[in-house]
Amino acid sequence: MDTHVAPARSQAAINCRGVTKTYGQGNAAVQALRGVDLEVRMGELLMLVGPSGCGKTTLISVLAGLMQRDAGECSVLDHDYREMAVNETTRFRGQNIGFVFQSFDLIPALTAVENAAAPLLIGGVKRRAAMEQTQAVLQKLGFDDRMMRSLPAELSGGQQQRVAIARAMVHHPKLIVCDEPTSALDSGSGHMVINLMREFALGRDRVLVVVTHDARIFEFADRIAWMEDGRITRIANAPIRAKEPQKNP
Amino acid sequence: MIAIALKMLLGDRTKYAGLLFGITFTSFLVTFAASYFGGMMTRSFALIAENPQADVWVMDPAVVAVDRPINLPTSALNRVRSVEGVRSAVPLALAQADARFPNGRFQSFQVIGVDDATLTGVPLMNVGSTAAVLRSPDAVIVDEGGTSGKLETPSSKTDQWPRGKPHLDVPTRPLIAGDELLINDTRVQVAGQSAALPRFPPRPLLFTTYSTAERILLPERRRLTFVLATAAPGVDARTLATRIEAATDLRARAADDFKEDTVRWMLANSEDVGDAVTMLSIAMLVGFGVTGVMMFLFTNENLKYYAVLNAMGATTRLLLTMICAQAGLCAVIGTGLGLGLCALAGRVFEAHDFPFRMMWFAPAVGGTAVVLVSVGAALFSTRPIRKMQPASFLAGR
């Protein structure tokens, strides 16, 4: 099954209603999502903010097809993961979704360029072409040849973060989900990276969902959704100051 | 992705070395055990192998292996000679006898009595000697037959043929031409040493003529053990064997078939087969233990990265392929190292007269063991992959 999604600007890329998710059973059950309603449009950069344990990561896991919801409706790029087989979902992720993980999760034995090229290689792109494509993306993120050939252990935290971001973008996914993408970057690098990601998301008719605590980058969001106790309590247009949230218009 | 899988493996040098060790160990030990076993089996039919001129071996119908002789009536020789297609037939006698050495020590020998006229059955002789030395009266040729230190005689004349107690703990030297032994109170003279193929089980050999054998061995109604027949030109050995069986009611086997019979009998009856199988099993078990645990640890430690790859679109099948590629690389390199080590060890063992012979099946057995161990280890280590939840890694858990 071809799981590539054709771009359709201004339509809802993500449309979730009443999504719930509970971990564990009985007395140990933890309700991570308690009926989340969320709509994200194509070309939009949505930031998810909220205290630790409020369900942000669970929500993006559900949106990215890494985890099945318990109940509710959720369409991502016009696909409902519940109607897809496991391998179909995996292939859909490979073609349409990019990830920036909280702890980078770069493979230690691979160079920066090989790490960032992984989605292309998984997608079947020839190694040489994949490397060329990836080098172009890394150059935009400020990498020189030596840095590209470096192992993750030889890179600073910020550089590793940028490799992770390049890895999320390199195969031009329709949806990028990021968990604290700028947490290890200084202010300047953070702005540069989120700018690039924003340019990528908006310029290519894509969607970017970012979980962050970094108030310095709130100004780059189109909208900000506040989560609390497994629910989205408020969605506001940006620019906005995190500590002085305005009422959702 | 295969290249990435291999880089991941090579990047973790400790685990990689552990995996290689496990596979190399398996490959080496299994191939070595198989080669050792091959050597033992080859030695079990050494008497047949060192008589290549005998196309057909004729024996009592109850004989199943070369070392399980039952003697024939003397008339069997002429009956075989009368069969059409037999160019020549010579007698061969096999028996056990205890020889007394000059210092009074007893040593058990396999006595091989060869045809007086042709001396067919005498193996290669050591440099400077020929089989013709057996034509002297009471002459015998001795051979270590895979043993060592059993053909020693006292160095000093004063310790030879002593009166009273035997002189056992005295300086010795190897037997040489001119030394004498007593077999059943009959004096024989060592005429030389041969370079016969080592036997399995190892035992000293004593070659002499058929007539001398009849004289020095204890009297038996039947002394003839085998008739060695040579086929006339154009006559196939198996065909001749069939003809001899039909004409004489004796058992006749082409030399190659008789070797197979002997190996089959050894496989079915020798306790050493059980030892070899035990050694193979232990080798595979240890190899699997080391390889399986290392592979499992490697996969488990890299589970986070496999989960990341899975999140990025790598299907479980692709991830399993990557693990199989890693196991495959270790299997190929480990097999090569194991075989190389085995060949080197074999050279050392052969130099010390151990029954090591790397026949075609030894690397095949080693390779099969490595495949089993690698596949087992790979399957064992895929368990975490099949059970992993990529979402848990998104949260950094």
Please explain how this structure is put together.
The complex is a heterodimer of chains A (249) and B (397). With 249 residues, chain A is an alpha/beta fold. Chain A has helices spanning 56-63, 86-96, 112-122, 127-140, 145-148, 157-169, 187-203, and strands spanning 12-23, 30-41, 45-49, 71-76, 97-100, 175-179, 207-211, 223-228, 231-237. Chain A has a six-stranded mixed sheet with strand order 5-6-7-3-8-9, with helices on both faces. In chain A, helix 3 packs across helix 4. Chain A is globular, with a radius of gyration of 18 Å. Chain B is α+β, with helices and mostly antiparallel strands and 397 residues long. Chain B contains twelve helices and eleven strands. In chain B, helix 1 (2-11) crosses helix 10. The radius of gyration of chain B is 30 Å and the shape is elongated. Chain B starts with a helix and ends with a helix. The mean pLDDT of chain B is 88.
What is the structure about, briefly put?
The complex is a heterodimer of chains A (249) and B (397). Chain A has seven helices and nine strands; from the N terminus they run E-E-E-H-E-H-E-H-H-H-H-E-H-E-E-E. With 249 residues, chain A is α/β, with parallel strands linked by helices.
